[in-house]
Specification:
- The protein is of the alpha+beta class and 633 residues long.
- The protein folds into 3 domains: 258 residues, Ribonuclease Z/Hydroxyacylglutathione hydrolase-like (Metallo-beta-lactamase, Chain A), CATH 3.60.15.10; 235 residues, Ribonuclease Z/Hydroxyacylglutathione hydrolase-like (Metallo-beta-lactamase, Chain A), CATH 3.60.15; 102 residues, Sandwich (Immunoglobulin-like).
- It has a 7-stranded mixed sheet with strand order 1-2-3-4-5-6-7, covered by helices on one side. Strands 14-15-16-17-18-19 form a 6-stranded mixed sheet. A 5-stranded mixed sheet has the order 8-9-10-11-12.
- Helix 5 packs antiparallel against helix 6.
- The N terminus is likely disordered.
């Protein structure tokens, strides 16, 4: 399409490789790039200015309007000053409330973050913005002698739009975070979502907005554009090639994911639909064959909902997880029937509320020690300090922490405790070996007979060697040959053979390579781990006139050290010290960057949202993570 551009324009289309490192660049006589942490765009006509995304360079004082493609605060920040100085904010109709009702969102979310199965990003505005106009696909925006076309392009967010402009003989599209560079994407976890027509909830919807994202990319390709200007990264001068690369990479990742997904066991009637949404009917998914299953497990294991009770010949019991009142009621029935004489231990496989919600209620009736491994220790004590799926409000104040690999004799059982970061990073497993020779590994929710439970990207399924599911598979190969696996949501016990374990390992290794091509980061884990930069505690209470401490904890997923620069932002009436902090973090390590937050004595009862910029290498990520401070007068 570039044949329509005059030779002078071709000369000035030398595109930046890192916007933050360059001065403003004129893409054509009327269109200027405003580089910075995001790509601002200024369209100039007869002394007037229209801005897309915002002005990260801080060089524009006035604009007629600012066009926002989506409501991510790590992009929206760049346009806020212009709007406050009088520019009209144009926003997607489907995401308008994220702009106009930001305060209401955070007031609700302080409680709604618990028991959260929706799994939608919280990188949304902290402060409300006055909106001049909402738009949706098919609308046009007339400005000066130009007409911009609005295209619905959901995918990276649910309600995103793109703006199409023809100026100076070139056809532009401003596409937000729909694409990065030559067919890449910023991350995959932002695509987590529900598919109601297939009865897939948000928690189980691994990157299911991949389907609308691909449809949006195809809609952009059909416009036969010359130049794409995403919200971040290089300007794209060959849209057709970049879009084809991204679609191919997304489909390759999804095909790999499906091949070993535990969800195929749970949702077998929905998986054809999920597959065809992204891959089409000729999908060629190399499904792993199902594990060997046994419908008649050991008699000393009693199934109680999604809990399991080890029942000794003596009548003593050892419980695994307690997430509902029905479990307590059934244990009472066993006691009343004389089958259970006492409860001598409770083991927690992972932090999710359906496995922990009624632990404290159980202990009131059956006092016993609660055992956790190191991965589970802190989140068991302080669930409110985390932003993760399926959190409980019920802290386990005094767990007994046993080290990874710890062995303990209990009655006629030999018990071995494992850190087991499968379905979530904060996960454990318990091997129970009965003196009669039967052996069961209680894996929580980490496997089903069809594969691995990594369908929720927000659970932190890391892919470094020796971590995540790779570590879980390493553990499986050390087990006795006749050991069966127990997932407490699955009725039969089951077992993978050596070839299936190798199949899963190979698929994960291939997936990391595929993700490395999909993402622009120097390690694929940044694109699947939303919490690589996280606040701790995520939520806390403060008195007006007092101080609280907040850490930004950063996991360096890279293979080399990085210096990370963290800049805090606090609400009016708060003060953060230091105003900026730097920390060099070695590969594979998580380190804290500490801030002290002072709350003014005059601050009324409210929810204060602390956000932090995180910058390293070529990345400058504004308002990237947040923490909630409930102020009490």
């Amino acid at each position: 399409m570039m044949h329509r551009l005059v030779p002078v324009l071709l000369a000035v289309l030398a595109i930046h490789s890192s916007a933050a490192a360059q001065s403003t660049a004129r893409l054509s006589p009327s269109v200027r790039l405003l580089p910075g942490a995001i790509n601002g765009v200024a369209v100039e006509r007869d002394g007037r200015t229209l801005v897309v995304y915002g002005d990260p360079s801080g060089t524009i004082r006035q604009a007629d309007m600012v066009l926002f493609t989506h409501a991510r605060r790590d992009v929206v920040w760049a346009g806020r000053d212009l709007v406050e100085r009088g520019a009209g904010a144009v926003v997607p109709a489907a995401e308008a409330e994220a702009f106009t009702k930001a305060t209401e969102f955070w007031n609700r979310f302080v409680a709604a973050r618990f028991h959260d199965y929706r799994q939608q990003t919280t990188k949304v505005p902290v402060l409300p913005m006055e909106v001049a106009r909402t738009v949706q696909g098919g609308d046009t925006i007339r400005w000066q002698d130009l007409t911009l076309k609005v295209l619905d392009t959901p995918g990276y967010t649910r309600g995103a739009v793109s703006y199409l402009l023809e100026a100076d003989g070139a056809k532009y599209a401003f596409v937000g975070d729909l694409i990065y560079g030559d067919g890449q994407l910023l991350d995959l976890y932002s695509l987590q979502d529900e598919v109601p027509e297939l009865r897939i909830g948000g928690y189980h919807g691994y990157a299911t907005r991949m389907a609308p994202l691909i449809a949006s990319l195809r809609a952009i390709a059909a416009e036969e554009l010359d130049i794409l200007v995403p919200a971040r990264g290089p300007v794209i001068r060959d849209p057709q090639a970049a879009i084809a690369h991204l679609i191919g990479r997304l489909q390759a990742v999804y095909r790999n994911y499906l091949s070993i997904s535990a969800g195929r066991y749970y949702f077998r009637d929905s998986y054809d639909g999920l597959t065809q949404r992204v891959l089409g009917p000729a999908h060629n998914v190399p499904w792993m064959r199902m594990a060997i299953m046994d419908e008649d497990p050991a008699g000393w294991m009693v199934c109680i909902n999604n809990s399991r009770l080890l029942l000794s010949e003596s009548g003593a019991g050892w419980l695994i997880d307690c997430g509902s009142q029905q479990i307590i009621d059934e244990i009472k029935k066993l006691r009343d029937a004389g089958r259970l004489t006492s409860l001598e231990g409770l083991f927690i496989t992972h932090y999710h509320d359906d496995h922990t919600e009624k632990v404290n209620a159980l202990l009131k009736v059956f006092p016993c020690p609660v055992f956790v491994t190191p991965l589970m220790a802190d989140i068991a004590r302080h669930p409110g300090a985390y932003r993760l799926p399926c959190l409980t409000t019920e802290a386990i104040t005094e767990p007994t922490v046993v080290p990874d690999g710890h062995r303990r004799r209990w009655r006629e059982f030999q018990l071995t405790f494992y850190d087991y970061p499968g379905q979530t990073l904060y996960h454990s497993a318990l091997l129970a070996e009965h003196d009669d020779g039967e052996k069961l590994l209680f894996v929580g929710d980490s496997f089903t007979p069809s594969g691995i439970d990594d369908y929720c990207l927000l659970n932190r399924n890391l892919m470094h060697e020796g971590e995540g599911y790779l570590r879980c598979l390493d553990t499986l190969v050390t087990l006795p040959a006749d050991c069966m696996l127990v997932n407490q949501h699955v009725a039969p016990v089951f077992q993978f053979d050596a070839s299936q374990i190798e199949f899963m390992r190979k698929a994960l290794t291939e997936r990391k390579a595929l993700l490395g091509e999909l993402f622009a980061w120097d390690d694929a884990n940044y694109g699947i781990d939303e919490q690589w930069a996280r606040t701790y505690p995520y939520g806390q209470t403060a008195r007006a006139g007092r101080t609280v401490d907040v850490q930004v904890r950063i996991r360096n997923h890279s293979s080399r050290p990085h210096q990370y620069t963290v800049t805090p932002h606090v609400p009016a009436g708060f003060l953060a010290e230091p105003r900026q902090a730097h920390r060099t973090i070695d590969p594979g390590q998580e380190e804290p960057v500490a801030f002290r937050i002072a709350v003014a004595a005059s601050t009324a009862k409210s929810i204060g949202v602390f956000t932090a910029d995180v910058a390293f290498d070529r990345w400058d990520l504004r308002h990237w993570c947040e923490s909630l401070i409930e102020v009490q007068p």
